[in-house]
Amino acid sequence: MLSIRLYQFYYSCILVAFLCCFASCKKSSPGGDGGTTVADATLAFTVNGSYNGTLSYPGLGTSPTVVINFSEAIDPATVTSGVSFTTGSSSVAYNQQLQNGNKTLTITPQQALLSLSSYTLSIGNTIKTANGGRLINPVNITLGTGLDDTDKFPRISDDDLLTLVQKQTFKYFYDMAHPVSGMALERNTAGNTVTSGGSGFGIMALVTGVSRNFITRAEGLARMQKIVAFLKTADRFHGAYSHWIDGNTGKALPFSTKDDGGDLVETSYLMAGLLTARQYFNGTDAAETTLRNDINTLYNGVEWSWYRNNNSNVLYWHWSPNYNWDMNVPIRGWNECLITYVMAGSSTTYPIPKSVYDAGWAQNGAMKNGNTYYGAQLPLGPANGGPLFLDQYSFLGINPKGLSDAYANYETQAKAHTLINYNYCKANPKAYLGYGENCWGLTASDIPGGYAASSPTNDLGVIAPTAAISSMPYTPTESMQALKFFYYKIGHKTWGTYGFYDAFNLQTQWFASSTLAIDQGPIIIMIENYRTGLIWNLFMSCPEVKAGMRNFGFTGPNL
């Protein structure tokens, strides 16, 4: 028995050794001893002369060179089928050159690649060696191009560029408005979901479009009649509208579980837009007279004082018939809600007293800041100013120039906040690709996989064109620089049917495909305020607004 076991052991060792030796050798071709061996191959590669240890190469130029070194000579006839160069679902034409006894393959694109784009170069296993061996380690190499300085669109005058941006952005609110209600879609993919606040911005955009002859006055009036007719029958909650509304039925759509009723802030944006339209459509004919009367009825129906929640000295953001005051969000400054207090204080039917403005909004001065950030002293608000929409939404209608009250000079506030944001992006402490004097603007926007309020204290690398462009009245030089960069230098990625897409990240080469009402609206409106002051002049001409702001202690040339 022992001899049999020893024989089995020795036989197993010999068999394993033979198999290991066989596996490490080159394969023999059919025909037995003395036949040609078939050599398999491995590859190594460089991109623009270097290898970074990965398969991903971002920030390349638009004419990268990829050199593939094979361990064995390859069959030239298999290169075409074994190499693919693509972007998305499109093929890229490339040049190929074999050298070094067919062991080195050089790949270059036939034409310059697009900047800020991603490409895939695949070296597949259909490549064979000269004597029929296989490629052991096929690869997919990602090639990401960086910024280039070429213009993506022909140069036009600055004035024509501003008009182009306004006209293209206007399409969001006119061409893509909800077909039944005429209201603005919450975003370009919103279906039947329209937004009350975004529609207020859209109404100001509509007035701008008529003034700029993008549409006729008759077309603008017809659209306003459709919107007002819809609002007369839509759900209201003590006069306030919900954030989201079904554009077909007028029924409230929950913004969140308990946010299914009145939204006072969104309602204030809507009412500011309606009052602006009322001042613009000032004709004596029956149609424009009826429109103005209907707008007055809508504004006078908002029970602003009721949203004090049992006469407390602050306004509350939400109320729901199902959850009452459970959202429990008092509206306190400094943020985007100054217009809410102005609308409430200007009401002739349900006004709030100055004490609510002072104690609720201004917190008796607690909203003051006074610190200096990035070279600018900030009168109000959070450290570093917060996202830029805080000094844009309210001032679409309220003219901050020369405007003051007990707490701040609002022209100083708006300019300081914007310059902090600009100087932060210029300093670029996180070293994000592209940030600088031509590429800046942090505000609330879409981000990869979600939505966030970007700011110097919450910088995710995402720039939103609306932030810099809507600051045009405050920082015209810096905003124009950014606008030109967004359009001329990266417009092939950022510019679409309805103007600029919502946001982008040059570091990761992410570009939104979305457009949002609350981001598109300020672009067209604030460019117009910069150019002519149209929307400021209309809104500030409202007699009830003048009276309400004076009662709160505001002073300025427009009051």
From TrEMBL:
Pfam families: Big_5, Glycoamylase. Residues 63-139 form the SbsA Ig-like domain. Keywords: Signal. This is Ig-like domain-containing protein. It comes from Mucilaginibacter mali. Residues 330-543 form the Glycoamylase-like domain. Residues 1-23 form the signal peptide. It comes from the Bacteria. InterPro entries: Cu-Rt/internalin_Ig-like, Glycoamylase-like_cons_dom, SbsA_Ig.
